């Protein structure tokens, strides 16, 4: 059996956005799967408000997955999947519309995923995750496969949404700038068997610019060094 995670102990505060960085294959997705209850750790446990997570529960923890839209369903129907637990049809409709509006997809309710650009699809996925209104939102590399501009735009939107809703959010990313520009805190994991090598608060107001803020710039250099890159542009 492969030893992937080693003595990982992390605490997430309500409302904060934590970004998790680490080399490829170190166990970030594994850790997310354990937190979300999809996998059981060989030892240790995950608790939310003192209660042990015993299995997947989308209303407690929702994992934002890209390419998760069902191609035979419209944007509206896909978002509706997140709110199946709301019995009242009118209330459900309001939640769906509210979240579609929030991600700027008003007017695309009856479109199918193939009729949307990659960035719009990602927005629809985000609307579904937000509509589910989970206690914790988990995002595993949410910008994967997006072009540069869509990446920047959706990143900004996620930051704005987080400022507005203050939902406890855990984001795994390969991108140091994503972590620096988004996180209230950044956690770095080492190579396998992964341990936490840095757990740092990032108390900087948004929007952030590491080129203008020297403390943030220094933190950026340090993160690159920790991840094995000595000269980062
Ligand atoms: N389905 C699987 N079967 C066997 N081993 C796996 C499987 N998934 C992951 N692993 C092993 O567990 C380790 C951790 O994988 P994990 O996907 O958690 O890494 P990661 O940090 O998310 O990597 P990446 O940044 O590339 O997404 C890997 O090194 C791999 O060897
Ligand atoms: Mg991964």
Describe this structure in words.
With 233 residues, the chain is α/β, with parallel strands linked by helices. The chain has two domains: 1-60 and 135-233, Rossmann fold (3-Layer(aba) Sandwich); 69-133, no CATH class. Helix content is 34%, strand content 15%. It has seven helices and eight strands; from the N terminus they run βαβββαααβαβαββα. The chain has helices at residues 28-35, 75-80, 89-102, 118-131, 148-165, 176-182, 214-226; strands at residues 17-21, 47-48, 51-52, 61-64, 136-140, 168-172, 185-189, 196-201. The strands form two sheets. Strands 4-5-6-1-7-8 form a six-stranded mixed beta sheet, sandwiched between helices. A hairpin with a 2-residue loop joins strand 2 and strand 3. Helix 3 crosses helix 4 (118-131). The chain is globular and about 50 Å long. The termini are far apart. The relative contact order is 0.19. Adenosine-5'-triphosphate (ATP) is lined by residues 2, 4, 22, 24-30, 192.
What general outline do the C-alpha atoms trace? globular
Radius of gyration: 18 Å
- Order of strands in the sheet with the most strands? 4-5-6-1-7-8
Low-confidence stretches: none
What is the number of helical segments per DSSP (H or I, 4+ residues)?
7
CATH class category label of the largest domain: Alpha Beta
Write down the secondary-structure element order: EHEEEHHHEHEHEEH
- Percent in strands: 5-15%
SS content category: alpha/beta
| Average residue-wise pLDDT | 90
Bound molecules: adenosine-5'-triphosphate, magnesium ion
Please report the distance between the alpha carbons of the first and last residues.
39 Å
The domain tally reads: 2
Q: Examine the secondary-structure arrangement and name the CATH architecture of the largest domain.
A: 3-Layer(aba) Sandwich
Number of strands: 8
| Biggest sheet record | 6 strands, mixed
């Amino acid at each position: 059996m492969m030893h992937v995670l080693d003595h990982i102990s992390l605490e997430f505060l309500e409302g904060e956005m934590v970004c998790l960085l680490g080399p490829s294959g170190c166990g970030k997705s594994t850790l997310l799967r354990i937190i979300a209850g999809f996998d059981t750790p060989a030892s240790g446990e995950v608790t939310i408000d003192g209660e042990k997570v015993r299995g997947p529960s989308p209303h407690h923890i929702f994992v934002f997955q890209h390419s998760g839209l069902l191609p035979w369903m419209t944007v509206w129907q896909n978002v509706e999947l997140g709110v199946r637990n709301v019995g009242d049809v009118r209330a459900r409709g309001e939640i769906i519309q509210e979240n579609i509006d929030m991600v700027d997809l008003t007017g695309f309710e009856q479109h199918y995923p193939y009729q949307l650009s990659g960035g719009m699809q990602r927005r629809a996925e985000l609307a579904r995750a937000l509509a589910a209104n989970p206690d914790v939102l988990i995002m595993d590399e949410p910008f994967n496969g997006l072009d540069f501009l869509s990446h920047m735009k959706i990143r900004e939107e996620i930051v704005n949404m987080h400022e507005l809703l203050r939902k406890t959010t855990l984001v795994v990313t390969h991108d140091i700038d994503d972590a620096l520009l988004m996180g209230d805190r950044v956690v770095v994991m080492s190579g396998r068997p992964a341990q936490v090598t840095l757990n740092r608060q990032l108390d900087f107001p948004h929007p952030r610019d590491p080129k203008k803020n020297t403390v943030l710039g220094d933190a950026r250099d340090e993160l690159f060094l920790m991840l094995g890159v000595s000269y980062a542009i």
